[in-house]
Amino acid sequence: MLRFALLGAGRIGRMHAANLAAHPRASLTWVYDAVPAAADEAAAKHGAKRAASVEAALAAKDVDAVLIASPTDTHVALITAAAKAGKAILCEKPIDLDIKRADACWAEIAPLKPVVMIGFNRRFDPSFKAVHDRAAAGEIGRPEQLIITSRDPAPPPISYINVSGGLFRDMAIHDFDLARYFLGDIVEVSATAGVLIDPAIGAAGDIDSAMVTLKAKSGAMAFINNARRCSYGYDQRIELFGEKGMLQAGNRRATTVTFNGKERTESHDALLHFFIERYREAYDAEVDHFVDCVEKGTTPLVTFADGCEALRIADAALESVKTGRTVRLAG
Amino acid sequence: MLRFALLGAGRIGRMHAANLAAHPRASLTWVYDAVPAAADEAAAKHGAKRAASVEAALAAKDVDAVLIASPTDTHVALITAAAKAGKAILCEKPIDLDIKRADACWAEIAPLKPVVMIGFNRRFDPSFKAVHDRAAAGEIGRPEQLIITSRDPAPPPISYINVSGGLFRDMAIHDFDLARYFLGDIVEVSATAGVLIDPAIGAAGDIDSAMVTLKAKSGAMAFINNARRCSYGYDQRIELFGEKGMLQAGNRRATTVTFNGKERTESHDALLHFFIERYREAYDAEVDHFVDCVEKGTTPLVTFADGCEALRIADAALESVKTGRTVRLAG
Amino acid sequence: MLRFALLGAGRIGRMHAANLAAHPRASLTWVYDAVPAAADEAAAKHGAKRAASVEAALAAKDVDAVLIASPTDTHVALITAAAKAGKAILCEKPIDLDIKRADACWAEIAPLKPVVMIGFNRRFDPSFKAVHDRAAAGEIGRPEQLIITSRDPAPPPISYINVSGGLFRDMAIHDFDLARYFLGDIVEVSATAGVLIDPAIGAAGDIDSAMVTLKAKSGAMAFINNARRCSYGYDQRIELFGEKGMLQAGNRRATTVTFNGKERTESHDALLHFFIERYREAYDAEVDHFVDCVEKGTTPLVTFADGCEALRIADAALESVKTGRTVRLAG
Amino acid sequence: MLRFALLGAGRIGRMHAANLAAHPRASLTWVYDAVPAAADEAAAKHGAKRAASVEAALAAKDVDAVLIASPTDTHVALITAAAKAGKAILCEKPIDLDIKRADACWAEIAPLKPVVMIGFNRRFDPSFKAVHDRAAAGEIGRPEQLIITSRDPAPPPISYINVSGGLFRDMAIHDFDLARYFLGDIVEVSATAGVLIDPAIGAAGDIDSAMVTLKAKSGAMAFINNARRCSYGYDQRIELFGEKGMLQAGNRRATTVTFNGKERTESHDALLHFFIERYREAYDAEVDHFVDCVEKGTTPLVTFADGCEALRIADAALESVKTGRTVRLAG
């Protein structure tokens, strides 16, 4: 039984709390949040205790691992502290908004050989994983083109935009990680972006619509499109085109029901609304994988280095938008 | 070049006229209709002549074949006359509403060994034919269950209902023929029916909704559902379930476009409206097959006997509704 | 917290045990099985105790309700005993294979006004329920035709066939209940059946393929097709055709992945294998509904009387196959 | 009746010949081809005459219009000659491989005010046109993102690659035109490309795989992906994402048949093989539109200027690949 302290009991933290509590080989023992009432509520719901501080949580005897779901700007400090305390670490994405801080963090903790996994949940989506695994098994031959559609139902508040690091570091970073998951190291990044949805996002210095093209070391190409608002819901699709075939993973709905009427036929229902619903199985599988890795001493599927690489691509995309040039990465 | 006289220039006759005119190995030379103006119009459009009478059309030297698209109650007389005149005959369904008249017709003309094909166009639909041919090639093993959905967009006028012979002989007869096409001889018929759509249809002595179950000599079963009104258009689907697989043929639309919006996703457009649009390729292929058969001296896919058998099943379905019993056929 | 004794710890009992254990307002306290080791295993897994006998389980203080998942021939006795012990009862379908025994059971326990729910899980499937609720809300106008496809992946062993009560009472009974769920009281039953899949099933006196047509008191019609073997998996579909539209609920898969290759395109994966996987959410929702009903004192969606009616339709279907006649029910 | 001379009787010329012959308001009177036997064959099939030279065809009294389907390097000369002869001109894409020659051609003929239409057939595809028209009618609000998938089943021979002008000018040019059709003037072009399919294509100085991002003057973005080989056939899809909805146009097949078996379900058949089959209706509609424009004196949907703009985007894409920079266009 792997005993977890949850650091951060906001929306995604509460979801993780429920998953940990329901997991057959994990348990939630402590919860810390900067807002004590939030920690209390999550702790009470799952039979855990509230920790008075991060330090207290890390010092507790009945903690083997931490799940970090606090605001991004606390991640590096918490990862560092947890690594020093000898805990296994599952940290929500992104590691940080500043690649230098992320690199420095790793430089500091690497000698401790911590088990760190970054929460790129989409790698654990059953459909995306099936595309990955079937391609890896050779079903479509050499992969040549990857198309990722990733559109959010509605923009976050401007207050969040202001601290988010921008569309590339906050939202597209998932897609950059997926590109690496499917195609391996990325060596070129080219991006086009704009403010088509909400001028307030532009006024905040961010973009709300983007198209990014990547080239992998293998020569394969990837395309990502992002929008901060999607009228028909959370649009999350993958297309992997290879030498011998093409695999697609589509959107998900709560039912299989279709309607036929005077003006439309075989009309499906709305999509699952947002990440908590759409990626429910993925979040479960992510925790399950992490528990497995800690138990067996194996390397998690998404390492600290993976978290850094996705961030580096995000930075490159931003640079490409600013300069109008393709940005090369070390790969 | 097979030269046709068209007998009957109503809606379906005009469609056949255009198909004959466009066919590379057929031509339309004469048109007869009880309404001379209708014949004139069709003849003028396709460079044919108006025949003053059926006899004149059959006596013309430049006529090798007749296409009969006149009202059902004239079919037997026209088939008989054309057979005696030595013409090849393509006659719209049904042969007649009275199986005794149909049988008597055949008894009279059989000695002349006429080439007669009945216009069960659905056997020539590319999708239905593909299901048939793939099943015949063994793709799904032994066929066990056939499901036919056959719903018209809107009921015909009551004046037509009155002379139609009723839903089974007029509308479901296509489906009875399809059941024989897919499963061979039918030996049992059981039907349930009602008036759910328009009480005026009931007042006219007919039904507007029906479910029919058939058993083939092979043991395979078929189910047909019919409705005289379908809010979402002309619903024409086939499902053939076999030992090793299942094949389906679905509805058709003018485009492949789908819409995604707030309340619905992957919503398709309306179906092709009615038989002329839905079965355009089938009508073309039907004429093409008939021309082929006449040229090569081969037996058409749908014989006079097939026309009689479909009518016998329609009669049995009606009897089953009236008696509440399964009706056995010679098969 | 509703405390359950589970009676019967076979495959479906074990699934229910896990659902009860995971339910936020239910708990599993006791498990009884004729095979003590089976009860031990289920009890241990979920922190419950093994009951030495049904009587012991019913006598335990920490039991508010029983979930009966034992062999069919024990249902009536267990329902009776539990009702007498004042427990709320959730019993797997069917109540019994003999409608007389079921009716007698109710006659005996009705005065006790027990809370009894029969486990027709399909009413709780999110997609089937959505079709029901949307139709009830008027989306398709008056329902006219219901088409149920219900095919199992593979036949059970002959030893099971021998005690199953036959295809209609064992397998189609779910579909008969669904017909009542969608269309209300059934007044006519007509069935065609055969042995197309395995002669051993015929030798055991049963059928393996069937088509059943029902007529509801409302005039609406229903069609059910059943097969004991389906090469492509567990085929469970619903089509509800109404005046203003048509709703369909389709099959389910583990992923949304489609493959495009040389010989096929947009090819989906295999279906969810069998009832435990296909109806997982339905089983959850069923228990949830039952807990709700007990807590709030409301009548369950599926009553003892519903269980009897489905069995009466099954008997009528069997009679129809034997006599070749439509069988009328009181409705 | 608009009388056509066909200049060029290769594969696409023969298809046009058949369309012209079948068109109710057009006729094919003369055919010229550098290979007299090819002209003879096409002429004989459709009752036209073979022209001994282009000059002879243009001098014939019974010629109102020319359809140019000869090799690309002859287009400019033929357009010029036909314009001087006062004929209406429907010319296959591209106008030329050299934008300077195309511009010079227009400078020369513009004073003659010729009716010239360039054969970007895809604008006339019923599904693409429906997406365009529905978006124009406001169904999805302001268009923000356009995704075009355009993959050929197999590469042309290297001998063709050598004279094709390269993937962008030969193949993607259709997609560049579509981007303008959907989004209007293009102001930025960024492209990534590679040789992933056949090294011989690389050796010939061309690329076989490409991803192009465009930005329109409106701010909307477009993405095009191209591959010279696609294992599952001719992949031609459009996705138009807007403020209020998203429209997609999918691939087409010869039938609606789907197969369900042990390893796959709802599996569709192969796609229509290549442009002649896939865009059959589009080619018909293109000719129909041209005939309409000439008859009514209206401007064709695809002008000479449109042909030049698509070529300018192709040149910019090539430049972007070479320089790694986004190329700006006048728009």
Overall mean pLDDT of chain A: 97
**Strand residue content of chain A:** 15-25%
CATH superfamily of the largest domain in chain A: Dihydrodipicolinate Reductase, domain 2
CATH topology of the largest domain in chain A: Dihydrodipicolinate Reductase, domain 2
Fraction in helix of chain A: 25-40%
Major sheet of chain A: size, sense and barrel closure?
7 strands, mixed
C-alpha Rg of chain A (nearest Å) = 20 Å
What distance separates the N and C termini of chain A?
Answer: 38 Å
Give the strand order, joined by hyphens, for the main sheet of chain A.
12-11-7-10-9-8-15
Spans of at least 5 consecutive residues with low confidence of chain A = none
Structural domains of chain A: how many: 2
Structure commentary:
Four copies of one chain form a homotetramer. Chain A is globular and about 55 Å long. The first copy, chain A, has two domains: 2-114, NAD(P)-binding Rossmann-like Domain (Rossmann fold); 123-328, Dihydrodipicolinate Reductase, domain 2 (2-Layer Sandwich). In chain A, helix 4 (75-84) packs parallel to helix 5. A seven-stranded mixed β-sheet of chain A has the order 12-11-7-10-9-8-15. A six-stranded parallel β-sheet of chain A has the order 3-2-1-4-5-6, with helices on both faces. Chain A has a two-stranded antiparallel sheet with strand order 13-14. Chain A is an alpha/beta fold. In chain A, 39% of the residues lie in helices and 24% in strands. The B-D interface holds B 22, 126-127, 130-131, 134, 139-140, 244-252, 254-262, 269 and D 22, 126-127, 130-131, 134, 139-140, 244-252, 254-262, 269.
